[in-house]
């Protein structure tokens, strides 16, 4: 029954749409960047954050998301990598980043005015093929241009969600096309 189901899936969706992890093609050696925390690296199961992948760090306000990203940037820089920080919140504390080990003079930073601008900058950086890590802090702060330029009380249902979906789709395309 399983063989028939697998054959049907491959017939409908194409060869490679489903496979056993032990078949070789599915299992790949994933390059990672340490988070700077041995415990977290172990908990992640691969020894850090995977390179060339989109990773969302989610949690409540002031839970350490930005600190974690800065620690990973510091680890990446130690390996000779280049990082960019898209500061949508306009709140990056450069002195704090330096204390965490970030080589601040080498860090690329952008403080975009709109969500669209942030995504366009991110897209240009990814397309350059020269960036090893891009942090967007934060997705919640990616405010659409129409919302910024609109009047208070304007009804713009779903605008933020559409921007986030567009950004996620763009990131997924890059994730598949560019193994950084």
Automatic annotation (TrEMBL):
SMART domains: AAA. GO terms for biological process: DNA recombination; DNA repair. Residues 29-180 form the RecA family profile domain. GO terms for molecular function: ATP binding; ATP-dependent DNA damage sensor activity; single-stranded DNA binding. InterPro entries: AAA+_ATPase (IPR003593), DNA_recomb/repair_RecA (IPR013765), P-loop_NTPase (IPR027417), RecA-like_N (IPR049428), RecA_ATP-bd (IPR020588). PANTHER family: MITOCHONDRIAL DNA REPAIR PROTEIN RECA HOMOLOG-RELATED (PTHR45900:SF1), RECA (PTHR45900). This is Protein RecA.
